[in-house]
Amino acid sequence: MLDPFAVSALLIIVGLGAGTLGSMIGLGGGLIMTPALTFMGFAPAQISSTSLFAVTFTSASSTISYAKQKKIHYHVGLKMAAVAIPGAISGAFISSVIAIEPFKIYFGILLMFAGIYIAYNSSFTKERQNGPTGNNRKSILLRPLFYSGALGAGVISSLFGVGGGIIFVPLLVLVLGMRLTTASPTSQIALLITSFVGTVTHAVLGHPDYFHAASLSAGAFVGGQIGAKISDRVKESLLRKLLSISLIAVAVKFISDFIGQI
Questions:
Q1: Environment class of residue 256 by beta-carbon count within 10 Å: exposed (0-12), middle (13-18) or buried (19+)?
Q2: Mean pLDDT across the chain, nearest whole number?
Q3: Cα angle at 176 between 79 and 240, to 5 degrees?
Q4: What is the mean pLDDT of each run of 10 residues along the chain (262 residues)?
Q5: C-beta separation of 142 from 178 below 8 A
Q6: What are the DSSP E strand ranges found in the chain?
Q7: Which of 42, 74, 98, 260 is deepest in the core (most CB within 10 A)?
Q8: How many domains does the chain have?
Q9: 3-class secondary structure, 173
Q10: What gap in Å lies between CA 42 and CA 76, rounded to an integer?
């Protein structure tokens, strides 16, 4: 077993990579940090709370950078966060009672959908984007879907420690018609508020491993800054393909392990 300092160094690297990719794509980085903690053998409540702790720092870092670039639509992000907050609180409580094997299978399914979404996102956005701010008539009819999706994102955020960006970004792009270059920054303000509320709830319940959370957060905060600054200069399509393949591979691993125990 690795000594605590080696584990800390490894988690800083994981956080750095997760923060960079999460900031660029708008997903918070939890989709990378949660699997890493799962493979390290943590209990579900520790996994979700420790990852979410770091996601909070990633989204804070990204929000600061995107705010300076004036890319955030605050009124949309704040509305989304307000609806997601009750879900974030509920997700933290659910993580207290779920066992590791159901946690893996449910998270594996989430990763599978996430990988597919990220792989095909460009084709979806080309078809659905109607403008940079999402001000289209169809959005009025789709508001119930938008708000129910935001609530579900809050639950997923705290239950799996992923921040909810995997739902926030598609909602902004596919329902409100935002461009991805606007949706990703806007999702960060919702991520920040939702993950903060979830982290506080987890802390009250005594879930986080603060030593590992601090290591992840250190890397994630720096990664969030890097991702926000280079988001316009890196070929996003390649990053999406690599991330998609990685998520699907981890999903297959989690699901196959569950099936093998049946």
A1: exposed
A2: 82
A3: 100
A4: 77 88 71 86 89 85 86 92 95 91 88 81 52 50 82 92 82 80 86 94 91 88 81 69 80 83 68
A5: no
A6: none
A7: 42
A8: 1
A9: helix
A10: 35
